[in-house]
Amino acid sequence: MIKRAAIYQLMTNFDEKLKSKEVQLTHRDLSEGTGRAETWFNNSFRNTEDLQISSFLRILAVANVSHKQKTDTEIDGAFLSDIFTSDVLETASTINEVAMENDAHFLDSSFIQSKEVLFQDLVTYWGILSANNKLDASEEEALKEIRAILNSGSNAEQEEDNE
To answer: Which of 18, 89, 85, 11 minimizes the C-alpha distance to 50?
Structure first.
């Protein structure tokens, strides 16, 4: 689930850059520019597909051509930093932490509470995926558990503040 949130974050950031005045590419333009079917990128975006590095590089190449046409410059580090934000990298780090442990660690309340701000953000992304019917039954159940853990942590803090 964390991986899906990272992909969603990355693809949303990428989509914003593609629509920017410096690039101005539609999903169709991008798909056709990479030699794919006209709905390829839109489907990948909507389904939060885990793109291969080669596909990502092809997308960047098309974006670079458009960027050069509009600005007379190539895309730069700032362009990439807007895609690979600190939030995306933090989510990726959490994927690594969970991978080093076991799946049960992912739903451990102390782990989730130790990364409360991150998980609150992830719950927002998962909520969007859930609303678009992109989570399976086990992911929906995990989302409920994570929400309950976050809510119990918030309730405990409120009780301490009231004392």
So the answer is: 11
